[in-house]
Design goal:
Strand content: 5-15%
Structural class: alpha/beta
Radius of gyration: 16 Å
Strand order of the largest sheet: 4-3-5
Length: about 170
């Protein structure tokens, strides 16, 4: 939490990519070199699931200290950095799902400000407008919920134009 949280107020305003990978995600990365490179380009990749932990140990001799998934990490992250003036943006899902997530997040994470939200169905023109809007709104955190591999691909393809500390 502290590692990622330190980026929220990064004076360089570089966009840091944080990904959570499970066994399915890694299997996809094995068969898709472009996706594998996207994951390699992240600032941090957290292993989600026992299969990932076993594979890291068996294949690379690395002992992951914990299972870290987004659905556990995000609430803890919001709690740990609440009340510090940070803002977030929700991207993904249908309009109805996104709106429901925004309602839930406003109620559950009162120490943060919802800067905005947008459904996850985008084309090239709407992508361009959304990146401009995101930069104008200047959230500290962008939560992208489009499923693997779409969410990582979206972040990677726009990362060089985004001015958001953590995605």
């Amino acid at each position: 939490l502290a590692h990622v949280g330190a980026w929220l107020d990064d004076p360089a305003r570089r966009t840091h990519a944080v990904y959570f990978v499970n066994a399915s995600t890694l299997n996809l990365a094995c068969s898709d070199p472009a996706y594998r490179e996207i994951l390699r380009g992240a600032d941090v990749v957290y292993g989600d699931g026992t299969g990932v932990r076993w594979a890291a140990r068996a294949l690379h001799g690395v002992r992951l200290s914990d299972n870290v998934n987004g659905t556990d990490f995000v609430p803890r992250f919001f709690d740990a950095f609440a009340g510090r003036g940070h803002r977030y943006f929700l991207l993904g899902g249908t309009e109805e799902m996104n709106e429901g997530a925004a309602v839930f997040a406003r109620e559950r994470f009162s120490g943060w400000e919802l800067a905005g939200r947008h459904h996850g169905y985008l084309d090239e023109a709407s992508d361009r407008r959304l990146v401009e809007r995101l930069n104008d709104l200047a959230p500290h955190l962008l939560l992208v919920g489009m499923g693997n591999p779409a969410q990582e691909r979206w972040i990677a393809s726009h990362r060089d134009r985004l001015r958001i500390p953590v995605c």
